[in-house]
Structure formats: C-alpha cells, structure tokens
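I trust your eye. Have a critical look at both lines of this record:
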Amino acid sequence: MIVFNTTFHVEKEIQEDFVEYMLQHYIPMCTRSGLLTSPRLARVYGKEEDEGHSYAMEFTVADIVALERWNANESQAIHAPLLEKFKEKLIGFSTIMQTVEY
C-alpha cells in the first residue's frame, strides 16, 4: 500500500477558504477515478502558526503504478484550479511512502 501525502502551508487569511475548498472540491476530484482512496485532511501543528497554518492531505493508493497513472492523467486538472484560486498564498510539497507491514 502506498501513502500519498501533500503538505500545504497556507496563509492565515485563506485558512477557512482553503479547508472548505479541500473538503468540497479537491478531495472529490482526487477520488473520482478510484485510484486515490481513503482521503484524510489533517492540520499540522508547529511553530510557523504566526505565519500561517499547515495541512497534510493524505490518500492511499494500491501501488506506484496506480499513483503514476493518477499523476499522468488527473493531477494537472486537479492542481491547476487549486493553484489558481489561492495563488501565492499557498505552497506545498508531496511525499510518497510505502506502508510497512508487521
């Protein structure tokens, strides 16, 4: 199982709009094809809160091949509206992790 995580840092003034957008638009668009599943949006606590807030958006994916297919076929159409809406008030980076079975 692959965990696909994107951590976003958002300025304080857009925090509520960002969360609403993620829940109402971003998550449904990301999961529409079924390649990304089990969405979870979590607030990241840290020292940067004076400058804004960070959120981790996490999905599970069956394998790397499925994630690559999602990236090739769907991600641009999903990320472009997010970046257009929030512009320079949002930055993010993605991490791909493999679940360790025990």
About this structure: The CA atoms of residues 5 and 58 lie 4 Å apart. The two ends are 13 Å apart (CA to CA). Helices lie at 15-31, 64-86.
